[in-house]
Fold these 3 entries.
Entry 1:
Amino acid sequence: MIINWGIESRKWQLLVKHVEDFSFIKAFKSVLSGSSVTMLTPNRVGEYGGRILYVDEGNRIKAISLTIVGSISQLLVTMIMGCCGLFFLRFFSNDTRNALNVLPELWSTILIYLSIGITVVLLLFYLRLAWLVRMMEKIPALQKIVKHIQVLDEFSNAQLLHILFLSFIRYLVFVLQYVLLLQVMNVAIAPWLCFWLMSVFYLVMAIAPTFGFIELPVRAKASWELLKFYSVNSLGIGAAALGIWFINLVIPAIFGSLLILSIKIVKEK
């Protein structure tokens, strides 16, 4: 858990340095605060609400656009690895107990290539943020918005790829967490197969509408529907889903809420 959020904190530190200096500890507190707010919003879209509390007031709107860059990089990695997982299960898995067998062959193929197409578009969008800003600058009605997102024009492709690399390392961490926890819960699936199944699981979770504290039933249902073709240990699958939700979301949210409370107390004093 610490490695997971530590990598995210380093990523946030690199992003926010384009508007002000940020120490790693400050970035870590900012990320945890964001994790507490995001538990109250659908699909974690509100994480910037906690993070910007640690940013100077004059830079907070700019920081929101930086948060979006970080979120897109993580989503992009999830999409890329999810597509690889779908591709593997469809074309390289010889196991007859295939999770994609619930779909007709044509529809499973369409699903794979549609996911790949969306991922390619998202990747091009991510690597052309500066181009997007310059296009918006030409539209008079968007001038008020552009002045707050011009910071995106400062990112080179090398910097964006660096952020993407950190997102990939973080992705490997929380997929490995899930694989290990499934092994602990005696869900007898080969680790290499479990890795690709988890990549599809996180792809589904990235697309499915969820809402903070009520996300657990969606997680449990999605993991069971995906893993039931390979294991009958429904209790172990559910326990692993609960464990990951608690470790990666609930505990950081609790610490983040305490940090937000401490900020409010200091301001009141």
Entry 2:
Amino acid sequence: MSTTLRSNATTETHALGIADWIALVLMIVGAINWGLVGAFGFDLVAAIFGEMTTTSRAVYVLVGLVGLYGISIPLRVAPRVRAR
């Protein structure tokens, strides 16, 4: 005779929203830029927007902010076990 065990908990997942996807894309861009800086001494953001121009500084600040925002993404989208 076989028995099936039922859990009193349900697993819940959350999908990524548009802000999460934008943040992930910007974090990837930042990671690629730092990889280029580390490996080749080439700063892609500075090459595109100029070295320490207002625009390049805005890009650096934006990437930094989305990096901080990115800390919350796994906390929000990870499966959560919730008691019934």
Entry 3:
Amino acid sequence: MTSAGAFPYIARSSRIPSSKKANSVMSRRCELTGVGPMTGHRVSHSNIKSKRRFLPALSPASLHSDGLGQTFRLRISNAALRTLDFRGGLDPFLLKAHDEDLSPRAQKIKRQLKAKAAAV
């Protein structure tokens, strides 16, 4: 009585490869400053407003930690990269940053820096 045509939603769920499901969600948030997408209006010539998203300018960066002697690959905004240069590198930036702004990976690096400084 039940055939494949009777329940088409069962057959469709297996068509999506598992690799596509895992890679479909990607964070658009800076790992150091916590800057994420903002909303605003797209304004036409006739002043009609429709919703739009302003995405942060994120770029992958290899950042070297002098205290740990390691290089970390983080996805940060271009503004955060300029702030890193201004503050003197990754270590001073992380030690001064608030924990709620940092990603879990950046929080782990900050904990390692504090543990290394306490041991010395």
